[in-house]
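Reopening: proline--tRNA ligase still failing for me.
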Amino acid sequence: MRFFLSLERLAAKKEGKKETGLGLTVKKGENFGEWYSEVVVMGDMIEYYDISGCYILLPWSYAIWDVTLFLLSFLQRFLDGEIKNLGVENAYFPLFVSERALVTEKKHVEGFAPEVAWVTKSGESALEVPIAIRPTSETVMYPIFAKRIRGHRDLPFKINQWCNVVRWEFKHPTPFIRSREFLWQEGHTAYATKKEADEEVYAVLDLYRRVYEELLAIPVIKGVKSEVEKFAGGLYTTTVEAFIPLTGRGIQGATSHCLGQNFAEMFDIVFEDEKRERKKVWQNSWGLTTRTIGVMIMVHGDDKVPYKDVDTQKLFDAAASTARQLKAAGLRVKEDTRDNYSPGWKYSNWELKGVPLRVEIGPRDLANSQVRVVRRDTGAKEDVPMDKIVDRISELLEEIQLQLLEKARKERDDCIVKAYTWKEFMKALDDKKMVLAPWCDEEKVEEDVKARTKGESGAAKTLCMPLDQPDLPEGTRCFASEKPAKKWALWGRSY
Ligand code: 87F
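Support: Ran it again with your exact input. Result attached.
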């Protein structure tokens, strides 16, 4: 799968659309990669940039990040608010990392080293020591943890940062899904005991589940990563895994790690406990990125670009009053008062951007003191009396949100197949399914499965060991090694 369109072709398509009123040229089910590229460009979400793997997040997509994560009015600044509810404070650390700090925790950077970008020059002169651009902030933050954590009263110590990070990836880039610079929040915390750290790992994981399910209407599976797939610098990694039905690929939605005491050891983050003994702290780190936006487009994007004629008379006053009421009720409203486009063209334009609910006001509506409300997901139209607009539209938005989640959940569930044997496993993979299989939980077996499934569309790997485990009767064997199975693991190809 390639997500690629030349800049020129895209520009031409965009221009062509303006002139002809036509929208997408490919269907989601026919060429998913091209469809995705078209949607993010023609929906005014992304502009391409002259550095490969870097994209401009236009207001229409940035608003999703903003609204979802900072300002979401009806869920009250959802994620930021919830992070603060966990007792975590926001702070900001520098973009640049010294080489010395970066290699303090060798194991953590080892596998990632090729992805680290360096600044080597200022103007024409070489820097005395090159400076790395943060790919993640463990090595930036933990010296400060070491300095500020002294006694048990300084714990727990909890910091979150909203920022950009840079990872010079060499895999094929895809807007939102895999870009060389992306936005995220990274939470970093330190506790006196493992028990407290464990509890937070799962509290944060559930928060991430809620971002996906409650805000973006995307079902996710909570689970633990295998030893092969976990973050090597930590103790264990938990994940929320989403699924893209059309490509049959799993995708990691966000992660919450328990780092154990590895970083405490390397950065000397110690505290004096009640008995005046020196102890290493237990640490976690967790992050959620702008990948969320890409997953949302991939799961819920559609081919809808209708074009129809309606009365072209502009009823700006009625539109303004409607918008005012809806905004006062905390809804996000955009009035489109452009008079150089036909209503049909405007419908197409907003459909392309994914607006869930359209309110039309024509002369007949005005005469009847009503507006016409059109749902994107079902296409259903209904006339709503002007004095009931706020209640009815709030209700409809709630309903759309729930139905989107249910629809995506059903589609996802239909793509999970249980396999007890290698043959069943391969059949399911070929059918673009995720596979739930009894597993012996041995690293060598996972590497072996990877090797045996390596093909054009990439090897299969464990996505996670779901927290919610089906029954595993005594005597069940691993689908791959035929050794006694220890747990159910979810396998699949992934992004
Ligand atoms: C790329 C280059 C250098 C991922 C990297 O998941 C280092 C890294 O440490 C690296 N790519 N990682 C793992 C990040 C771990 C962790 N950091 C805080 C998270 C969530 C937020």
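The radius of gyration is 25 Å. If you still see a failure, please send the error message rather than a screenshot.
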